[in-house]
Amino acid sequence: MLERSFGQAIRSFGTLFLLVAMLTVPLHLAYSLVFRNVIETRELHEVIGTFPSSRQVRGVGQTQLTQARVGLIVVSLIELAAIPWFVQMTVKVLRDEEEGNIATVSDAVRGTPFSFRLGPIRPGPVAVSVVVALLIGFLIERSGLLLLEFVSDPRSYPFFGLMQGVARAAGAPFVLATLAYSQRPKETTPKVPNVY
């Protein structure tokens, strides 16, 4: 199942990436706009954490760090809550691809009702796909953050949010394709009679 779902994820990567990016990129850009001061001082977070609660660096103290962490948790929970809907859209994209049609983001969004229900999953393949997705997202985010070293701190916050949104959208197609194939009924191989 993993070979087929990963192959389909690679074939439909552009469509699946854009499906997820339509949520993750705006969310992370909004997060980076709200917590721009925290992002600008990200290299000093460990030091700021040791300060008394009244001391701040560029308007960032322990309270702002805690608020930024809670904000990131809220953004992540929104993304996790949308997974069943993304899986339904992925099923539509994969079905269109198998039927020889061109799968588009607009068709997937329009043709899929919003749902929070997810059918039974196969834990083994899904766990492997989650590890692969996390690894891809981590590598893309880290390489993007290395490029941010060339951007001055006061201007880095939109690129930081964009990089986080893109990294999450880049890893998601592998999980979504595996979950979509996991929703299908298990294929049974026809029994071949034994002639000997």
Shape: elongated
**Uncertain segments:** none
Distance between the termini: 31 Å
Strand content: under 5%
Percent helix range: 55-70%
Oligomer: single chain
* Helix-strand topology string: HHHHHHHHH
Q: Nearest-angstrom radius of gyration?
A: 21 Å
How many E strands? 0
Characterize the main sheet: none
Question: Would you tell me the overall average pLDDT?
Answer: 81
Q: Helical segment tally?
A: 9
Structural class: mainly alpha
Overview of this protein structure:
This protein is mainly alpha-helical and 196 residues long. It has a domain at 2-33 and 81-183. It is built from nine helices and no strands. The chain has helices spanning 2-11, 13-34, 36-40, 45-50, 62-81, 83-98, 105-110, 123-147, 157-183. Helix 2 runs antiparallel to helix 6 and helix 2 packs across helix 9 (157-183). The longest helix is centred in the C-terminal third of the chain and has 27 residues, at 157-183. It is elongated, with a radius of gyration of 21 Å.
Give a short overview.
It is built from nine helices and no strands. It has about 200 residues and is an all-alpha fold.
